[in-house]
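Lab meeting notes turned into a lecture example. A postdoc, R.K., suggested we walk through two folding results consecutively so the class can see how the record format repeats. The first protein's sequence and structure tokens come next.
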Amino acid sequence: MTARTPADQPPPALAPRDVGVVKRIGNGVVTGAADDDPSAIGTYASAGAAYGLSFLPIAPVLLPMMYVVTYLSAKIGQVYGKGLFACIREQFPRWVLVPTVVFATVGNLIEAAADLGGMGAALNLLVPLPVPAIVVASAAIVFAVQYWGSYAAIHRLFRWLALFLFAYVVAAVLARPDPLAVLRATVIPDVSWSPEFLALVVACIGTSLSAYVYTWQSNQEVEEQIAAGRRHPRQRRGATAREMKRTSRDVLIGMLFSNVILYFIILSTALTLHPAGQREIASAADAASALEPLAGAAAKYLFAAGVVGVGFLAVPIMTTGAAYNITQALGRDGSLHQAPNENRLFYAVIAATTALAAGANFLGFNPMRMLVWAGVVQGLLVPPLLLMMMLLTNSRRVVGARTNGWRTNTLGWITVAVTAACAVALVVSWLR
């Protein structure tokens, strides 16, 4: 008889996680909103303003990719019992680990810097202070809550602000689009092969499938199991079919919400800014103007609330993700359940990443342009990381009997191919 691997062993029962339908959907919505961070808002708004309705097909194309990437990351944390980079360290040679963790951490840093800049630009619409000063204050608040409080506290405080993202849905509806024209534009792609168009495609892919999502999702599965009493990795190995089904469902809810929001951000700017000839979003005020059909003079308040709300959700995820990456690559543990005096390295990385992200905003980059380029950088990181995740989740040594089924494999490998092709096309267009 073939010996069973640790990942095949049924784990100790977790505390019940099946909660009411309304609360479960609410948690999924918040997770999806965190994916629509300020970088995502800036990127989608720029795409709609620049190319109008012709950019709408990106939403249905991205949805299955968003789902499969997040699900694979969750599976690694749930079944292997460790975060993504701990798994990469144990399953791949050092020459693969080192550049991967360096580029992923740099990607997190750039994205956090862009998000802090976007938050500063949005708040500057309301507060007559220099954007860099607002950035520093925002970074200090984020780190203070992480260090002296908990991420759960900031999550509870700002989670409902993410619902301001629905303003883009209402704005698009109130702009009275032609339903047939919108449907035709959504299902019939109108692709341009210009470097600018390809850069926005890669940016949309990158900001939807950001590396910080992989790291965070896998480690949150681990954190949840630690909270349930599974403190040793051996206790966390394996997952029941019911647990995997629940994970798949929750990921789908979150990514569906995130995808609907990105669709309507593109649609609202395509219906308002693009026809007016405002093809480039150079400031937060430009992006806020897309909400004017809904809110008039109050548009800037809605825009600022949405950006700042999801920013305070997303920036801690990115800085903590960098800490997960580095500590796991060094073979060290890192958990939000540990106090700062219990793991100085973990919190030192959070502090350093937050400080560097804030400092990057003093280099003179336009905050809205930086949001788009952060997505481009993340988009170039997607193919290699996703390739490793596909190999890991098809390895019985890693996930035991929970290797991917044919549907997940088909969707995963298509996502690898599509993201790689877009990245290569962008690089070729630059070289030309």
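The second example is placed directly after the first for contrast:
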Amino acid sequence: MNEKYLEEAEIAYTINTVMEEAQRCLLCHDAPCSKACPAKTDPAKFIRSVRFRNFKGAAETIRENNAMGSICALVCPTEKYCQLGCSRCGIDKPIDIAGIQRFVTDFEQQLDMKILKKGEPNGKHIAIVGSGPAGLQAAASLLQKGYAVTIYEQAEKPGGYLRYGIPAYRLPDVIVDYEIDRIVELGANILCGAKVGQETSLSELKENFDAVLIAVGASEGKMLEMFADNPYTETAVDFLARVRDNQGDISLPNSALVIGGGDVAMDAATTLKVLGVESVTDVAYETFSEFLASKQELAGAQAKGVTIIDGYLPSKVSDKQVTFKHRHNQNELTITADLIILAVGQKVNAEELALPIEHNEVTFEGYQTSDPQVFVAGDIAKGDKTVVWAVQKGKEAAAEIDAMLGGKAND
């Protein structure tokens, strides 16, 4: 076990400091922060409750809109959503909405509040394929409406990318377990080690369930052809899963090269530094003005001492040595590292599910497929690929399933 890897990166608010931050809120009548939240968590309402020390009310506001509230408080790129809409941006700096949300959900956990309630059984049973944030949120929404829910998860533990992709210092296992346990308490039946398309077919699910929601994510890392047989190369997805499986207790060299400019690349590079790798260099295709990673993730990597080089793409590789060419001029650079990590995108593995997929998402708009009994959500559905958007997709897909089935038992 590596204690540094398991140590949380952010320090939580105390009751005094969270009150100070909440007092900065302008209490906007038509709050732009609430309009900017994809999951409709309503920051304006729960911050107002915090200002009046109604922490229970704040927790209820969060949970009624977002079953992944504790997780989103830690990993949501709020700078792109609610905080971008904050009215204080024109005065000084936006309200730390994520920090306040974390205080409230920590309070909820300490009091073991049971906000979400299981609905009166309606006799209908839904199968969900995938236990990432979209599948878990959809399960919570359906359970509250009285549906029975069975979740099929191919991994050994539920959680999807929450469990196997995001580093533990950003999202501890205890928080993932807490969120999942609450959904199990609502009545969700989670079957792990169950890959739909192999042991169980989609046709069998359709025969045994009233509707099927496919909420699989882009869980496999892409491998550039020139690196395919390189023994020193690993995808960022595999690396982050390996680190998390071993709680950070893995052997690493003194130098590492990360290729990519998104949040996953920043997670991999920062994780390497947290685990004690002396020299970590990230080379990104994007220039800094085009960077895909959030400002917070980029700043976190730089603060840990990651060297970041922008605007280059790999042109050739020989064992530990990679040569890059600049996108806009004739410059070249060569970097030698003992470990090469590719963070150049991820792909969906859903060949057995017979879905029309292009560029890792379905080709149609909305959630219902051409088969009225089958729905999609999460990364595989069109739209942003963040946790908070997965939550919203899960909610909307659940609402469409309920609209189709009418919430009533078969005659």
